[in-house]
Amino acid sequence: MKSSNIIRIPALVLFIIAISLLHYLTPLHLHYLHDIFQRLYYLPIILAAIWFGLRGGLACSLAVSFVYAPHILFQWGGHLTLELEKYLEIVLYNIVGAVTGLLSQRERERGVELEKTADGLEHSYKKLQAQSEQILTIEENLRRAEKLSTLGEMAAVLAHEIRNPLGSIRGTAEILRDDYRPGDPKYEFIDIQIKETERLNRVVEDFLRVARPQSTQKVPCSIQAELKTVVMLVANEAKQRQVTLELTESQFAETITGDGEKLRQAFLNIVINALQATPSGGRVIIALHKTKSWIEISFCDSGPGIALENLQRIFEPFFTTKSDGTGLGLAITKKIIEGHGGTLHIESEMGKGTTVVVFLPLLEEGMP
Known about the structure:
The protein has three domains: 3-121, no CATH class; 162-211; 219-361, Heat Shock Protein 90, CATH 3.30.565.10. By secondary structure, the protein is an alpha+beta fold. The chain has ten helices and seven strands.
C-alpha cells in the first residue's frame, strides 16, 4: 500500500464519522443544519472517487449510505416526505460516487497511456539519435576510405615519379661528396643534401605504407624482445634529449603471433613521438601487463599533453602539430596494430603527459 493511501483512507473515515456525529447530535428541529450536513457527505465521496477511482467512489458512497440510513430510519421516522427526500439523497450519493470515480479512473488511465506514449517517443528519439550517429560514423569511414583510395593512387605515382629520381640524386651526391673532406663547407652541404633526400624518401615510403594494404607474415614473436630492440635504437636520441627512457622488466613470456618487423616499426613511432614530446629531464616509461588473452603495452611520457581538439584527430592521415612532421606516423602505427587484431588508445591531459596503450592478443596455447 502506498504511503499516501495510509493517510487518505483514515482521513476519509474520520471525515464520514465527523459528519455522522453532527447529524446524530444535532436536534431534529434544526432542519437547515441537517440539510448542510447531508450535503457535506459529498466531499469524502468525491475525494475517494478522485483518489481511488470507481471502486473508491462506490465504496465511500456505500459507507456513507450505511451510516446515514439509521439516521433516516430512527430519527426521522414518521415523516414520510422527508424520508423519501433523504432516501433519494442516498441514491445521489452512489450516483455521484460512481460517475466521479469512473471519470477519475479514465483520466488516470489516460495519463498512464500518455506516459507510455511519451516513453515510446523518447525511446524512438534515442533510437533515431543512435542511428543518426551511426550514419555519421559510416559517412566518416567512407570519407576516410575515399581519402585512402586517393592516397593509393598518389602512392603509385610517387613510387614511380619520385623514388627513382631520388635514388639518382642521392647516388650523384654521394659521388660528389667523395671529392671533399669532412670539414669542408661543400662536404657539409652535400651531406645535408643526402640526409634530406633520405628524409624525402622516408616520406614517400610512409605514403606507401598508409595507402597500400601490406601483407603480414605472422609468426610467434616476443614483445619484450621487440621493445628492447626499440629502446636500443632510440637510446642515443633519448640521451641527446636528456630524457630517461625506461623499459620495465616483466615476469612472464609475452609471445604473440605477428610480424615482428612491423610491430617494431609501430613501437618505434610511438616511442619517438614520446621522446619528442618530453622536455629535458623528463621520463618515458614502457610497461607491460598481461591479462588472460591480451597483452597491454603502455608508453607513458611526462610531456605537456595533447589538447582535446587535437586528440580527436590524432589518427587522421596528414594531421600533425609538428612543423617538420608528415602526420602519417600514428596512422601507420594504428593500421599495423589493428592488422594484428589489436587496438590502440591514447589518453592525455594538458600538463600531465600522454599515455599510449596498445592491446595485442596473446599467442593461443597449442599454436606453433
